[in-house]
Design goal:
The chain is 37% helix and 19% strand. It is α/β, with parallel strands linked by helices and 212 residues long.
Length: 212
């Protein structure tokens, strides 16, 4: 049976587009059953609609706390029965109110190598380290999100991006984004066989953890 993906995105949705393109080209055998965003004007929702994918906006209500929002988000997503949930530019830290509902099924893409520059502005911080300390590379990783630790779950796939002399935030960001699109598709290719319906996916396998 086909692996069902749900994508959560807060922004323009370029990583989502990489997934949709890979599916339409047969590079990925999965299907995207829904795209959800915390922003009603997110470009990712536009991309979803243009591709005929269910687009769902779940904005935070006034006065709603983080746990209540995550519970509502999970309630909205659960009926769609996703096998893998991809955080592709999702700008909210998910609490266990969400993650506990989908154990072993939530993955995230982060524009840095494992253990480096967790959290926001990772590309800018890597460039600053290059300028101040001579850092020669940064990178991208795709990892599981088992709990609320930021960008710290078991790694599925990673790749390095060289920082060139004279790089600006714009030039480095462009290359990092290109790497994101490629590594996300590769990570999903790894996950598709094991995430297929009927295969237990409660814990990441050692093979997944070691691949890079």
């Amino acid at each position: 049976m086909t692996v069902r993906l749900a994508v959560l995105a807060s922004g323009a949705g370029t990583n989502l587009q990489a997934i949709l393109d890979a599916q339409s080209e047969g590079v990925l055998s999965s299907t995207t059953v829904a795209v959800m965003s915390d922003r009603i004007d997110a470009g990712a929702l536009v991309r979803a609609r243009e591709s005929g994918v269910k687009a769902i906006a779940v904005p935070k209500n006034s006065g709603e706390d983080r746990r209540a929002y995550d519970q509502r988000l999970a309630d909205t997503l659960e009926p769609l029965s996703p096998d893998v949930i991809v955080l592709a530019g999702w700008m909210r830290i998910l609490s266990m109110a969400f993650l506990a509902r989908f154990p072993g099924r939530v993955i995230n893409i982060h524009p840095a190598l494992p253990g480096e520059f967790p959290g926001t502005h990772a590309i800018e911080r890597a460039l600053q380290s290059h300028q101040r300390l001579g850092l020669r590379r940064t990178g991208v990783m795709v990892h599981y999100v088992p709990d609320e630790d930021v960008d710290a779950g078991p790694v599925i796939a990673s790749t390095e991006v060289v920082i060139e002399p004279g790089d600006s935030v714009q030039t480095l960001t462009a290359r990092v984004h290109d790497a994101e699109h490629q590594i996300l598709v590769k990570a999903l290719q790894i996950l598709e066989p094991e995430a297929a319906p009927g295969v237990s996916d409660d814990e990441p396998s050692p093979a997944r953890r070691a691949w890079s």
